[in-house]
Each structure stands twice: as structure tokens, then as C-alpha cells.
Amino acid sequence: MSDSLFLDSIKPLFADISERFSGESQFDAAGAWSELVATGFLRLMLPEQDEGAGLDVTEGLPVLMAAGYCALPLPYAETALLYAAQPTLAADDQALAVGLSTTAGRAKALRQDLPYLQALLLDTAGGAERAAVSDSDSGNWTLQGIPSPCETTINLQLLGTAAECLQLAGALQRVLELTVDYANTRQQFGRPIGKYQALQQQISVMTGHCHSAVMAAQLAASGMQRSDTGLSLDHHRVAAACGMIKAACQPVVSTAHAVHGAIGVTEEYELHHYTRRLLAGRVAGGSESRWFEQVGQACLDSDASVFDFTLASLS
Amino acid sequence: MIPWPQRQTLPASAEALRDEVRDFLAAHPPAPAADIRARSWMGFDADFSRALGQRGWVGLSLPREYGGAGGSAFERFVVLEELLAAGAPVSAHWIADRQSAPLLLRYGSESLRQELLPRICAGEVYFCIGMSEPGAGSDLASVSTRATRNDQGWLLNGSKLWTTNADRCHYMIALVRTSGQHGDRQQGLSQMLVDLSLPGITVRPIRDLAGDAHFNEVFFDNVQLTEEALIGAEGDGWQQVTAELAFERSGPERIMSSIALLECWCAWLRRSGGGSADRRALGELASRLAVLRSMSLAITAQLEQGESPVIPAALVKDLGTGFEQDIPDTLADVIGRHDDAFADEELMRTLAYTAMVCPIYSLRGGTREILRGLIARGMGLR
Ligand SMILES: Cc1cc2nc3c(=O)[nH]c(=O)nc-3n(C[C@H](O)[C@H](O)[C@H](O)COP(=O)(O)OP(=O)(O)OC[C@H]3O[C@@H](n4cnc5c(N)ncnc54)[C@H](O)[C@@H]3O)c2cc1C
Q1: Which string of b and e fits B296-305 if b means at least 16 CB within 10 Å?
Q2: What is the CATH number assigned to the segment(s) B12-125?
Q3: Tell me, what's the pLDDT at B308?
Q4: With an 8 Å Cβ cutoff, are B283 and A241 in contact?
């Protein structure tokens, strides 16, 4: 199967789950998760020996981005990447995400609005731990039982941030499409508003941000190398790409809402599902400043020219 | 909608050139001072261009039968980015290499190709672009310089403005009106090869705000051109110019114009320490550079496949020149936080120079607003 065949076969389910989430008062998150499990797509980037499809992250990227494009309200990309990072995590098909401990017995996922989660991966002084969770109280998950150690040595914070950012890149694509469609449809002063140069220039700038973010997502994916034992992260390349995607969020949200006028701030119109996600996602796992500062430090430490550092570590 | 960019990695054959170019640069070192290197693609040095030509790195992607190296667009990309990263003086051969030679290859007569391309590839013959005029800036279709047919070929009258290197190069490729009137817009325009040594041509250099003279006013007073001077078909000038601009708009030169300043500052930062704001600025600029370079490379892949990605190239140019302009802006702010930076004269000179000239980055080759209009068209808004 080519990348796009993978994508075509899962995207309708993503869109369907997303529609149920926003349309039904009693969304059955556990049921939706079982549907995802049944597709086998959580094992997209697991080796064949672990009943996976054996895709590289680069090959799986269109599917990961599609989760964001569809505003999928489940930790699909997070889980699929964690399974890829540590294949033993896939054993019981649980919904996973990277989290941060808050108060005793509580933790937050990097992505705050998740309606469903079964366990969090936490970085602790003693190494990575996996903690079963239940009951989210506005994003604060209650830890169940004693966390178990997890063998992975991967940088969980970066992996979790990357999982978020790849979805944000998909959401940015969606917001750009919605905005262009709206500009071509909505008429004022007898013409589609997209005919006005002021809006054209703003949408062109927005296009630039979205295209940069999509390229950054590809750079991030290329910095996540898969082997039969798990993923290894090219730290600076992934961090730089995450910074770029995060930096695109605010300007894109601003222009999208400006172009949409009042309809864009209604509950009924779909724009807010994506813009909310972009605003929250920009902060989740650390804003662009956090990652850019790490990249800058690495460049200073490298002793190479900025150009050479960019070639060797970011490209 | 403009197609989403597809990441492309450099083939090994192209990557292999990098060290060769670095060895060459070690033997032909660019100026030591960063504020001179900052002039890179405005720095004119015929000896350097000839030496580069001898290595086969001018007209690198032209076919061998015309003196080129038969290389790929990717190989050319590596040579260019290495030259620009080093701040090498590439201006002399730059325009011929980038756009005049591909244009001649595509539209020139066989005898013109035989005559000119090998000399371009040798780094000996230099070109300029005669598009803009006093009355035709962004509105390029309103050019009024005219070539009129006569029994010896074409008689050229009018003037060009802002022509980079007209005072020190051999040929101009001019966009002129060959039929119809001003109001006919894109119709009736043609491209002419003008030998700048012909009688009737006056070139007046114009000094820029940094004190350099790289662009010119050019006057044509009954300049007699031969029949051969017409490039491509009469009346096809507009389409030819549009295709040419895809070569002009997306290369590494639209990303690297402020690199000398960035490197000079980073070196200073390593010596002096610096704080969190400096590291953040450095990390952001390096990250943007990485993404832009990948986007430029994606366009290169399209050019290599024989496509003419005019609108994606405009998008990359708009983003790239914005980046080039944000470098002096960001650095003025972070450098200004450190008193000891003022003592570093090279850094301060390079900052002052780059900050002062960077507005041109989003003017030359089509202004930011014009590019954004093209992008809007690509998005289906116009
Ligand atoms: C360093 C340098 C080198 C150059 N080298 C060459 C060269 O070698 N050959 C050559 O032919 N030309 C050259 N140029 C000229 C360059 O192509 C023109 O400057 C450019 O096309 C803009 O034209 P203009 O300067 O007349 O500005 P104008 O077209 O007068 O534009 C002024 C302002 O108005 C805006 N504007 C104009 N029309 C519109 C519109 N329809 N909608 C919205 N905004 C609009 C512009 O974006 C700009 O902000 C060079 C310029 C520079 C600065």
C-alpha cells in the first residue's frame, strides 16, 4: 500500500469520530478508541514482527497529520508514536500520551483537551514510567495504582511535543483550506471578499506560514528514525521543526478568524475546533521559545558556523 | 491551492561537491571582513568568476555541448549555497548563470547558443537584465522601450533603469515593445539581446544608500541590432520573462543575503557569552534557515524535473526575503542589550550595512506585494 492508500483508508474514520465528538452530547470515547484499535492503524509504525505495518515516521506522516486535519479527539498520533518508540507498549492496545506530574496522584497530558486516555508516560528522576489513569478533571488525570517503569530511553517530552506538532501541521492545512474557501464564497460589496487585495495579502502570508509548517513536519518526521527496537530522535532537528510549527500557530489563527468575521467565532461553525487546538498545541510540551532556545544553545555548543550547524543538525 | 511542499534530500553526487567547493574557497578566500562578505552577490570580481568557470561551476547545469558541466540542478544548488555561505563575490557571472544562460538555451538560436553559452560557462561573459524602466516597475507590462524593425534588423530606442551590472557586463537581455502600443500590455513584447558595446548606448551608474554602485540607468539612442538579436518568438516576451522569473525567485540567494551578519554575530556570541534571549534568537533563525532551505530545495527538484513552478517559487522568495530582513531586525534588538557588543566594530559595521540595505531584498526580482498577489492567485483568490 502506498502512503496515500493508507491515508484514504483511515481518514473517513477520523472524520467520522470527530463529527460524533462535536455533534453528540454522549460521545462514546472508549467505543471510538476500540474502532481505531480494530483498524490496526495504531501499529502503523511498528515492525512487522510486532504485527505492525513497518512504516517509517516519514511514511506514516500523512496519517499522523490527518489526525490533526480532522481534529480527531483521541490520542491516535501520540499512541502510534509511543508504540513505535517502544514496541512493548503496544501489547494491550491502550490509549497513551506523554504527561507531566502535577500534584500527588495527578498528572496532565501534554495535550490538555483529551476526552479519553488509559495511561500516561511520565519522565521521572528514576526514568520513564507508565501510569494508568482514570477520570480527567479538566485535564487533570488521576493516577491509578503504582506506576510501572518503562524501558525507553527516548526523550519523552520531545516525542510528545512532536506528536502534537505533526497534528498541528495537519490542523494548519485544514484552517488554510477553510479560510480560502470562505474567502471565495462570502460576498460583500457585491464581490467575494477574497477579491480584495487586503485579504489576499493576509491570506498569502498565512499560506507561507502553513507551507513552512508542513515542510517542518516533514523535517521532524525525518528526524525520528525507526529501528526494530524503537525510535531514536534527532533531537535538534525535531526541536527546530517543532518550534517552527508552533511559531506558525498564532499568526494563522489570527488571520483565519479575521477573514471569517463573526461566523468564525460561533459554536456552530467548525473553525474553532481547529483554532482552539492550534492555540493550545502551541503551548503543549513547550512553546516555540523553549525549543528555539535549545536549538540556539546546541548551535553555540557545536562550534560550527550557523550554516554548517543547520546542514548537519537541522536539515 | 498551491501544492504542499515535498521534502527532497540532496542526491549524493550533489552533496559530494560540497567539500570540493570548500577546497576551492580555501584557495580563493572571500574578503576577511564580514561587512564586505555581506555584499556577496553584489560583489563583482571577474578573476573569481573565471576561476569558478574553470572548475565548471558556472553554467554547471548546462549541457556539455555548450560548455556546461551537464550537472543537475541539485549540484548547482550546492555550489550556490556554499558560495553564498562564504560570502564569495559572485555578482559578475551571477545573472548569466542563473537566468540568461537557461533562457538562451531554451529560446536562443543555435548560433547564439554556440557563440555565447561556452563563454558564459567559462566565467568570461556577463549579463544584465533590462526589465525595469522609469515608468515600469511592478507594472512591467508597461515597458515603453521599443525595437522597431528595419532593413538591418531592429532599431532600439528608450531606456532601462535599476539595471544591475550594466556598467560592467557585456550583454543585456531586454524586455521591449516590438509591436502595438503601451495599452496593449502583455501583448507585443519581446526579448532582445543587446551587446552593450554598440554605439548609441549610454550607461550611468547609480549610487545606493550604502555608497555602492551596482545598478544603473541605461539609455538607447537609435541602437542598431541585428535580426539575430530577437530571442525566442516576436511577441512572446511576456511568457518568456515569466518563465525566467521562476529561476530567479527561489534559489538559495533568496535566503542567504544576511548570512554574513548571522555568522559574525554567532561568532561574537561564542566569545562573549550572551543570554537566553540570544540563544532563542539564534535557535529561531537557524530553524527558519533549515526549513526555508528545504523549501528552496523542493523547488529545485521541480526545476530539475523540467517544471516551471512560478508560484511556489514566489512563495519561497517571499518567505526567504522576509527571513533575510528579520535577521538584522532581530539582531539589532538582541545585540543592543549588550554594551560590549558596541566595541566590536566589524559586527556593528555588518549590522549597520545589512540593516540599511535589506529593504532591497523584497524589491529586486518583484516586490513583496506583487509576489503575494501571485500567491493569492495560486490559492484561487484572483
Ligand atoms: C538592488 C536592486 C537591483 C535591481 N536590479 C534590477 C535589474 O537588474 N534589472 C531590472 O530590470 N530591474 C532591477 N531592479 C528593479 C526592481 O525589479 C524594481 O525595483 C521592482 O520591480 C519594483 O519596481 P519599483 O521600484 O518601480 O517600485 P514600484 O513598482 O513603484 O512599487 C512601489 C511600491 O508600490 C507597490 N505596488 C506597486 N504596484 C502594486 C500593486 N498592483 N498592488 C500593490 N502594491 C503595489 C510595490 O509593491 C511597492 O511597495 C532592481 C531593484 C533593486 C532595488
Answers
A1: bbbbbbbbbe
A2: 1.10.540.10
A3: 85
A4: no
